[in-house]
Each structure stands twice: as structure tokens, then as C-alpha cells.
């Protein structure tokens, strides 16, 4: 049986796939990879089916050992990866032997790295997904030293490419947002500040959402309580302090603060790579 043994899990190491959509009515969010673009790229590089699970590392610091011969790939945050101490390329198909040790260092830019193995990681499915949801606790627990993950049979045709170009990351991000549904709860000045001000990701961010800080808070025109309503990935929810929270994969399915805007789906993978101190600007449409 092919498997991967966790030697060092880093700050947060979880199993992720494309999530469990369609369960918001029972209080379960989608979850899944925070950077779906990098997750999908890793699976393509090893020839997996679209629903295969990968491993998501936050801030690197990961080391795993192969049990059997494994075809693997590492994508996502930019940084050093090695096999048995020898540098290898990211976004590249890797052919590993029994006992080989794959290490992912702390990234130089970006936040999350994805490790794929041909066949995917075979953990128990919960509501149709193998994803770890850090908010609800559904799915497998975050990985720890000594865990052994079996490799499954989620194989497709061999990869369309053995080398994929990594995205450029500079530590400054511009993303598109659509205003609403509650932009009328904010002053006209707040709408101007949302688009003109540079925001900074804070250290309190996680898979639930990115907490943003800026020189000028977003001022509300209405101060009454808002009934809880549904939330989606990319929602910019604004608490009373006027500093928005940008919801990610493990976001709550409902929220009681007004949402001033929603990030477009195409930009969400880039949000998943924001690290504390990175800056972001919103293009309002």
C-alpha cells in the first residue's frame, strides 16, 4: 500500500479537496482548499481526478516520508522544496521512491502550499468531501507528527503537462468586488474608502477569513441590528469597528454584520495566499 507519513506538520497541515457545497441549509459550509487554483494545478500535475484530495500546508515547515513509490507535486506559495535535502522544482511532477523525504520550507511569498500524490489521499469522506473544516470540525483532524495517510485510486489520465507556470506574487494584491448586498448600510464616504484605501491582512487571519486593517474604518450610515443572513466565500463583512473581514473557505454560513461587497470568484484563490502584512486593494464594479 502506498502512503505518506507525516514527519513534521508545520503550523497547520490539513487534507483538502474542492469542498462540500450544498449543505448551507443544515449549517455546513463548503470548506475545501483555500486556493483552489493551486490545489487543482497540483492534481493535474500528477494525473488525478478533479475530486482528489491534496494536503494544504500553511506557512510551510512540512516534512513527509514516502511509503512506496509515489508521483507527487507541490504548488501554491513560493518557496524552497527539497527531496532528501536536494532542491527540486515546484509546479513540477516529482517521481519519488520508498523512503524519500519531501520537505516544504516556510514560503518566501504566499501562505499556502499544496502537496498532491497520484491517486489522492484516501481519508474518510464526510458529506461527500474529504476536506478539513476548521470552523465546524467536520472532516479529518489537522495532521500531526506520525500520521500516515494512505494514497487512494483517484487517478485520471496522465497529466496534461509535467510543468505548470507558478503565478506571480508580489505581496500586493488587487481584486474585483461587486458592491452589496448591504452597501446602503454605509456612508458614501465608506464606499469611497473601500475602493481607494490600501488594506493590510492582519495576523488574526485564518481559513475562516482574512481580517483587514486600514487607516480609515468603514463608517456605517445605519447602526441598528441586522438579522442574520446567508454568507458566501468572498463576502466582506464589516463589524462595528469598521474593519472588514473577508470570508474564505471555512466561513460561517450566516452572519449578523452587513456585507458591503463580495469578491469575485476568480480572485478568491489569490485571497487564499494572503499572508499577514500583505496589502490588498479592491476594484469596485
Summarize the structure.
The protein has 285 residues and is mostly beta strands. It is built from three helices and 21 strands. The mean pLDDT is 95.
Fold and architecture overview:
With 285 residues, the chain is mainly beta. The protein has 2 domains: 3-154, no CATH class; 172-284, Cyclophilin-like (Cyclophilin). It is built from 3 helices and 21 strands. It has helices at 36-46, 188-196, 268-271, and strands at 3-9, 12-16, 54-58, 62-67, 70-78, 81-83, 86-88, 94-96, 101-104, 109-117, 119-121, 148-154, 172-179, 199-201, 209-213, 229-230, 235-237, 245-247, 254-255, 259-263, 279-284. Strands 7-6-9-4-1-12-11 form a 7-stranded antiparallel β-sheet, with no helix packed on it. A hairpin with a 2-residue loop joins strand 6 (81-83) and strand 7. The model has no long low-confidence stretch (mean pLDDT 95).
**CA-CA gap between termini:** 51 Å
The helix/strand class is mainly beta
Write down how many β-strands occur, each being a DSSP E stretch of 2 or more residues: 21
Per DSSP, the total helix count is 3
Notable traits:
21 strands; 285 residues; 35% strand; 8% helix; 2 domains; elongated; seven-stranded antiparallel beta sheet; Cyclophilin; 3 helices; mainly beta
Helix and strand topology:
Layout: E1 3-9, E2 12-16, H1 36-46, E3 54-58, E4 62-67, E5 70-78, E6 81-83, E7 86-88, E8 94-96, E9 101-104, E10 109-117, E11 119-121, E12 148-154, E13 172-179, H2 188-196, E14 199-201, E15 209-213, E16 229-230, E17 235-237, E18 245-247, E19 254-255, E20 259-263, H3 268-271, E21 279-284
Parallel strand pairs: 13-21
Antiparallel strand pairs: 1-4, 1-12, 2-3, 3-10, 4-9, 5-8, 5-10, 6-7, 6-9, 11-12, 13-20, 14-15, 14-21, 15-18, 16-19, 17-18, 17-20
